[in-house]
Design brief:
The chain has about 120 residues and is an alpha+beta fold. The chain has helices at about 20-30, 40-45, 50-60, 90-100, 110-115; strands at about 35-40, 65-70, 70-75, 80-85, 85-90.
Length: about 120
């Protein structure tokens, strides 16, 4: 006997590659040259923060300088042009400068030692 005609055909499962671990992202980051571009996922692994925090920093105008490629531009009522979508990249030397500026001290005696 033949199979019933009205049964849906099974869908193929989409195979997605596994996400890289933080350790893998950090190892790759350390091998990159100073002028290399890095994506949001790698930067989030380096800074130990979420993608949402990086997006908030970009939106508020703070954080690390970034490069946006692609996307569409649109002018608001005040004539300011905003770009929506596209890919966001950071330059490794900007990330390193940001990390150096955020250097923290564990005590006030360390601050005295560094200032002399």
């Amino acid at each position: 006997m033949n199979a019933p005609q009205n049964q849906p055909t099974p869908r193929r499962k989409r195979i997605t590659p596994p996400k890289p671990t933080r350790a893998e992202l950090l190892a790759e980051y350390n091998l990159l040259p100073e002028n290399a571009r890095i994506n949001e996922q790698m930067l989030a692994a380096v800074l130990l923060c979420s993608l949402a925090k990086l997006q908030r920093d970009r939106w508020s105008g703070g954080g690390i300088p970034f490069i946006r490629e692609g996307g569409t531009s649109k002018a608001d009522r005040n004539g300011r042009v905003q770009i929506f979508g596209g890919k966001v990249f950071y330059v490794k030397k900007d990330v390193e400068a940001h990390l150096a500026s955020k250097l923290t001290l564990s005590s006030t005696s360390e601050m005295a030692q560094r200032s002399t």
